[in-house]
Amino acid sequence: MRIQSLAGTWEFRQVGTEKWLPASVPGGVHTDLLALGRIPDPFVGDNEKRVQWVAESDWEYRTSFRCTNGLFSEDKVLLVCDGLDTLVTVFLNGDELGHTNNMFRQYQWEVKSFLHVEGANDLLIKFSSPVKYITEKQTIRPLPGVPQAIAGGPHLRKAPYQFGWDWGPQLPPIGIWKDIRLEGFSAARIIDTKIRQDHNNGKVFLEARVTVERWGNMTLKAVICITAPDGGILKKEIAITTRDLVILKVPIPKPKLWWPNGYGAQPLYQVEVSLMRRDASHAEPLDQQRFQVGLRTIELRQQEDQWGRSFVFVVNGVPILAKGSNWIPADSFPTRITDQSLEWLIHSAAETHQNMLRVWGGGFYEDERFYDLCDRYGILVWQEFIFSCSIYPLDIPDFLENIRVEVVENIRRLRHRACLALWCGNNEMEWGWVEWNWKDSEFQVLKAAYDRFFHHTLSAWCHSEDPDHSYWPSSPSSDTPFSDPNGQRQGDSHYWDVWHGRKPFTSYRNQYPRFMSEFGFQALPPLTTIRTYADETDWNMTSYIMEQHQKNANGNSIMVGQLLDTFRLPKDFSSLVYLSMALQAEGIRYGVEHWRRYPNRVAGILYWQLNDCWPVASWSSLDYFGRWKALHYAALRFYAPILLSIEDTPPVQTVYVSSDLLQTWEGTTKWSLEMLDGEVLASGQAHVMVVPQAATQVCKLDFSDRVSDDNIRRLVFIAELWQGDQLISRQTAGFAPIKHLSLSDPAVRIDLHREKGQLIAELTSQSLALWVEVSLTNTDVVFSDNYFSLPPGRTTRISCPLPPGWSLRQAKKEIHVRSIYDSY
Question: Which residues contact 247 (CB under 8 A, 6 or more apart)?
Fold first, then answer.
C-alpha cells in the first residue's frame, strides 16, 4: 500500500470571484480568511454578526499535485477524504467524482483512471452554502430546533452546534476539516477489523475478525502483532483461503486490566493487523490497521431494586460511580483544536477525579486524539450519535441511508476503545416529544419515525456492529418510548429546575436520580478571558457585548438574580466575575455532595459542562482557553475519592463521609461551632469507618440551644476529616445566608517559599475567609487548591508550578488573594 498526503497549502476563493487565495488543509473558510486578515476575529465583540456572509456563500478549494513514485504501480488508487464539511462536489482533472452531504462520513473514490501519470493533477472541491441549503429545506418543511440556532439544521448532517446553541455562536464552518490523501492498493485491502475480547476466570483472549476486499488470485494471509505494555510482543498469522473473513484469536499472557480513573491503572496494548502476501514473509504489507486496546469488561447493569431500576456501569466486575461532566466540541472551528489544548482539557478532567465524559449529541464524533487521551487517562466515554434537541426527517429513505453509513463507519472506528462505555441515540429528543409541545398533527408521522429509528433501527445497527457495548435510546430516557423519559425511577435524568426554573440550590436535595447525566449553573469566565472579547467600557452585565457573549435567554439576569440571593451586591465588575464563579461552584457542589450521600441509589453524576467552544458566559468549568474556573477547583474536592460533606439545615448540621474506595476507610471527623473570629463555642470528634463504595452519616448536631437571633450571623460550623495526622478535607457551613454573615476583614496572610520548582503558599487568616481565591498577575497557573474556605487558627498550604523565568521575589510581588469579604 502507498499513501500520498494531499494536506498542506491549497488555494480557495468565493464562488463568483476571480482571485485565488492561499489556504490551509485541513482547515476552513473562516480560519483561512482570518489568517489573511480578510475578516475580523469572530470571537471578539459582536464580530460573529459581521461574518455571517461567509457561511451564506459558496466556496471552492483547489490544489495541484504530482503523483509520487510507485503510486501507479498499485492496482487501485483511491482519493480518501476523512471529512468534507459538508455540501461538496469533487472534481479531478475536470472530471466530476461525486457529491457529499455528511461531514461525519469518510468519502472514497477510485481515481486511478482519472490521474495523470506524468505532469500535474488538478483537484477542485466546490462547497455549497450550508445556510442556504437548510433555509430552503426549512421553508419547505419546518422542523423544530433550538431557538438560538439558524433554523433548519436537522435537514443536514452537519454538527448542530455550529448553527448556534445556548452557549455557542452561529458560525457554521465550510471546508476540508479532516485529512485528505491518495491511497494505493494491490491485490487486496482490509475493509474492516472487529476487535473483541473474551474474559473468563482471569484469562483473556484478544480476537480480530478481519474482512478483506480482494481482486485477483494472490494467496494472502492476515497477521496480528500485539505489543504489551511491558514491550512484549505476541504474533499470530492465518491464511486467507476462499472466504474474505478470517478470525485471529490470541491468548494474552498475564493480562493487565484497564480501569477507569481512580480505580486502577490504564495499561494499553498496541494491536497491528496486517494483510500480507502469503509467500512473502518479509514483504511490505498490502494493507495495515492499528488499534490501541485496553483489556476490560464493561456492562450497563440495570436491575430492579427498592427505588425502581438501577443504572450502573460495571467495569471488570466492579460497579463504578461515574463522576464527570459533559463534553462539547472544543472550538467552533474544529481544525483549530491543537493536540496540546485537547490534552489539557482531558488532563484537567482527570486531575479532578473525573472518570466519565458524555460526548454530547449536538457536536461531532471526536477524532482519534480524543479517544486516545481518554484511554490513557481512564476516562469512560458516553458516546452519543449526532442528534440533539430537534425533530429530524427520519421518514426520508435517502436521509436514513446517509445516517446508516455514518453510524456504521463511526461504530467501527470506535468500538475497540477501552474508554467506550455506551452508545446513546440522541440528546433530549425523547424528552422533547413529551415535554416540548411538539404536538402539531404534521409532526406525528415524524414521532412514529423517531420511535422506529431510535428504539429499533439504530439499536439493531449498534448490536450488529458492536455487541459488546450497551445501547441507550436517548438522554434522558426511561428506555420505554415516551414514558416518563426524565423520571427518577429508572434510566438517566437531566435536572434544570435550578437554572431554567430559578429554584434554589437546596432543591437538588429533593432529587434522587438513578444517573444524573445533566445539570448545571452558569458563570462568567475569568476576567482575563473576558478581556479577549470585551473592552472595559463594556464590563457591565447588561451591556450589548456582554449579552452578545451570553447565548442563553435571560442568562445574565438569572446569574445576577441567583447571585443576589446568595451574596451581597458586588462592588465592581471584577468582583462580579469572581462571585459568579463562586456561585456556580457553590450550586454544583450542593448537588454533587447530596447525590454522593446515596451511592447505592445514584450511580452517576455528570455536570453540564466541562468546556467551551468560544469565550462566553456558560455552564463550563473550564473556559475556552482551558482556564480553571472556581467550579473546576470545587470538582477537585467534591469528586475526591473520600468526600466530607455537610448537609446544612440550620440549626441542624449533619456530617457525612462518602467513599469510592474498594476497601474500608477509617479516619476521624473533628467538628466545631465557632464565632467568625475563631472563638470556639462547642467541639467534638468521632471515629469514622466507611465500608467500600458507601456513604455514612457521622453525626447529626442540633445547635438550637446555641443559635439565636443575636449570634446567627456570626456563627460558622466547621468539620474536618483526618487520617492520622493528615488533614483530608475541611468543610464549613453557616447558619445564615452568606450575604447576611457579619464577615470582617480576614487579613489573609500568605507566606511563600520555593521547593523543587514549586511555589508553596501557606495561608492564614484572622477571621473566616470564604471562597479564597489565589492568583498570580498576568500568568495562568493551576494551584493544588483554590476557592476554599479558610477559618482562623488554621493554615492552608497550596502549591503551583513556579512560572518559567520567575523568581520567588517576583512571585511575592505578583501574588494576590481575595475572599467574599473583598467583593463588596
Answer: 207, 208, 209, 210, 238
Spatial distance between the Cα atoms of 280 and 288, rounded to a whole number of angstroms: 15
Domain extent for 233: 187-293
Q: How far is CA 635 from CA 466, 609, 704, 788, in A?
A: 33, 12, 32, 12
Q: Are residues 485 and 606 in the same domain?
A: yes
AA identity, residue 371: Y
Question: What value, to the nearest 5°, has the Cα angle with vertex 194 and ends 192 and 196?
Answer: 175
pLDDT of res. 281: 65
Smallest CA-to-CA distance from 769 within 749, 787, 750, 789 is with 789
Output the pLDDT for position 282.
Answer: 67
- Same-domain check for residues 649 and 792: no
| 774 Cβ contact list (under 8 Å, min separation 6) | 750, 761, 763, 783, 786, 798, 815, 816, 817
pLDDT digits (tens, 9 = 90+) for 308-356: 999 999 999 999 999 999 999 999 999 999 999 999 999 999 999 999 9
Burial class of residue 476 (count of CB atoms within 10 Å of its CB; 0-12, 13-18, 19+): buried
Q: Prior bond to 522 cis, omega within 30? A: no
Q: Which amino acid is at 148?
A: Q
- Residue 675 half-sphere exposure toward CB, CA atoms < 13 A: 10
Contacts of 306 (CB under 8 A, 6+ apart): none
Task: Specify the DSSP class assigned to residue 457.
Answer: I
Query: Phi and psi for 775 in degrees, rounded to 5?
Result: -145, 160
Phi, psi (rounded to 5 degrees) for 113: -70, -15
Helix (H) or strand (E) holding 564: helix 555-566
Give bridge partners of residue 322 from the DSSP assignment.
Answer: 604
Residues in CB range of 24: below 8 A, 6 or more apart? 8, 9, 10, 31, 32, 35
Q: Which three cell numbers stand for residue 284?
A: 511490505
My answer on whether 275 and 371 are in the same domain is no
- List the CATH number of the domain containing 283: 2.60.40.10
Nearest CA-CA partner of 223 in 246, 241, 206, 244:
246
634-653 pLDDT per residue, tens: 999 999 999 999 999 999 99
Q: Which residues contact 33 (CB under 8 A, 6 or more apart)?
A: 39, 51, 54
Q: Are 211 and 192 in contact (CB under 8 A)?
A: yes
Last residue of a domain, one of 638, 668, 702: 638
Q: Which amino acid is at 353?
A: H
Q: State whether the Cα torsion 68-74-79-80 is positive or negative.
A: negative
Grid cell for residue 589? 457542589
| AA identity, residue 169 | P
3-state class (DSSP) for residue 187: coil
Structural domain contains residue 555: no
Same domain? For 812 and 802 the reply is yes
Distance between CA 368 and CA 356 in Å, rounded? 17
CATH number at residue 137: 2.60.120.260
- Asked if the structure places residue 224 within a domain, the reply is yes
In a domain, 776, yes or no: yes
Is the same domain home to 147 and 160? yes
Whether 121 and 93 share a structural domain: yes
Cα–Cα distance, 824 to 790 (Å, whole number): 18
Q: Where is the domain boundary, 184, 200, 235?
A: 184
Collect the ranges in the chain with pLDDT lower than 70.
281-282
Nearest to 426, CA basis, from 137, 141, 154, 610: 154
Asked whether residue 299 is assigned to any structural domain, the reply reads no
Cis peptide before 480 (omega within 30 of 0): no
Note the pTM of the prediction, 2 decimals. Answer: 0.97
Distance, CA of 312 to CA of 315 (rounded, Å): 10
Predicted confidence at residue 350, as pLDDT, reads 99
Residues 727 and 816 in one domain: no
**Do residues 649 and 558 touch, judged by C-beta distance below 8 A?**
no
Contact 495, 592 (CB under 8 A): no
**Own/partner pairs for 93-99, CB < 8 Å, 24+ apart?**
93/121, 93/122, 94/122
**Is the N-terminal amide bond of 142 cis, ω within 30° of 0?**
no
Tell me how many domains the chain contains. 5
Residues 329, 401: one domain? yes
